[in-house]
Specification:
The protein is α/β, with parallel strands linked by helices. 42% of the residues lie in helices and 12% in strands. The strands form 3 sheets. Strands 2-8-7-6-5-3-4 form a 7-stranded mixed beta sheet, with helices on both faces. Strands 9-12-11 form a 3-stranded antiparallel beta sheet.
Length: 397
């Protein structure tokens, strides 16, 4: 017999993926260049040439068994050492290889982090708006994801609601900054207050509440925006990172878990990740890609286009009467729709070949997401379609 819970999930496919499929099909009809597809967060800028050069160098100078063989369970030792040294250099925390576990992207890193600190029935809190895949990531471990309602004025943490939900059953709190879908970066004040609450509640409940920090957008931060290192604020932080966005490598599935050196049982936690891998199959990410990223850890793709696109969209949206918190990073913007039902709003936009994602799936009904990781020329052309959509449906413009 097939497992019913996975069969049930077939009727709840990702709205983002469904809209992306619609955009692809529509593109076959009118040319994809004429579809203003803001559905999917797929990086649009090329991989840095330095990374490509490093790949070619490895392929022509290293033994096949080294490049294509299994890596050790925790990742290649030299790569873990390089990641730790980079983190120490950048953020001033004494990371060592014993604190690093190489993973198959941020999703793989999160899969390990949740299993490190929760048992079935435990609760994990996250903050709306949130990446919708968090729900299956957590719930399929046997733990339960609970979502704190958003502060829609700033998309910082709604602390009143958070403390009301922070019960004895909560073993971990999951944050994502810079945030998908809002583009907001949590401030130092927010992170300091969050750390204070977690310390106080951990002491009150007699067990550690871990902070799991999902950081795939850490390097996409706009000019003048302060993006603090989360691990500097709270000892019991588990950092989950991916190179998908910084190096434009989503298809290579490479990232890591970095346990704060001050975390309780930090070294045991990394060794436990190797054992968790035995049960979930998220083990031994590609050796070739590990070796290549180790040589490009502090490089990024040319990310400036994302800020250019953000400014174009933000200025146009505000001019058209949208309420919108200005993003501090990522390649997402999350305005309030011009009617209460964001799904109806996004359905109407499809008639103008504007593919927008309703905010309900992110835990923020009434808002919608635009993933502006597309060519700037296409963003510019989409502005006329956006204006026409608003004028013809909402008498604004």
């Amino acid at each position: 017999m097939l497992v019913q819970k996975y069969k049930d999930m077939l009727s709840g496919k990702s709205v983002i993926r469904q809209l992306s499929e619609f955009a692809t099909a529509r593109g076959k009809e009118i040319g994809y260049e004429n579809v203003f597809d803001y559905s999917l967060g797929n990086p649009s800028v090329p991989v840095p040439q330095t990374f490509t050069n490093e790949m070619m160098k490895l392929l022509t100078t290293r033994e096949s068994s080294v490049l294509h063989g299994y890596s050790p369970s925790l990742g290649i030792t030299s790569v873990r050492e390089a990641v730790a040294a980079s983190l120490e250099r950048r953020f001033g925390l004494p990371y060592r290889r014993e604190h690093i576990f190489m993973a198959s992207g941020a999703a793989g890193a999160l899969a390990h982090a949740f299993r490190l600190v929760t048992e079935p029935g435990d609760e994990v809190l996250c903050f709306a708006p949130f990446f919708p895949e968090y729900r299956p990531y957590v719930d399929l471990t046997g733990a339960v994801l609970k979502v704190v309602p958003p502060d829609t004025e700033s998309f910082q943490i709604n602390f009143e609601a958070f403390e009301a939900m922070l019960s004895q059953k909560v073993m971990a709190v999951l944050i994502n900054t810079p945030n998908n879908p809002s583009g907001v970066v949590y401030s130092r004040e927010t992170l300091a207050r969050l750390a204070d609450v977690l310390k106080r509640k951990s002491a009150e409940y007699g067990h550690t509440i871990y902070l799991i920090s999902d950081e795939p957008y850490r390097e996409i931060v706009f000019e003048g925006v302060d993006a603090p290192c989360v691990s500097q604020f709270y000892d019991n932080t588990i950092m989950c990172y991916s190179f998908s966005k910084s190096l434009s490598l989503p298809g290579e599935r490479i990232g890591y878990v970095a346990v704060n050196p001050a975390c309780e049982d930090a070294e045991d936690m990394v060794n436990m990740c190797g054992q968790i891998s035995r049960g979930i199959g998220h083990n031994c990410p590609p050796s070739l890609i590990q070796l290549a990223v180790a040589e490009t850890l502090e490089l990024t793709a040319d990310l400036k286009v994302y800020e250019t696109n953000m400014k174009l969209l933000y200025e146009k949206l505000v001019k058209l009467g949208f309420t919108c918190v200005k993003p501090g990073g990522t390649f997402y913007i999350f305005p309030r729709a011009l009617e209460e039902d964001a799904k109806a709003f996004c359905d109407k936009a499809l008639k103008y070949d504007l593919v927008l994602v309703p905010g309900d799936t992110f835990g923020a009904p009434g808002f919608f997401r635009m993933a502006y990781c597309i060519e700037t020329e296409k963003v510019e052309r989409s502005l006329a379609a956006l204006e026409r959509f608003v004028e013809e449906n909402y008498s604004r413009g």
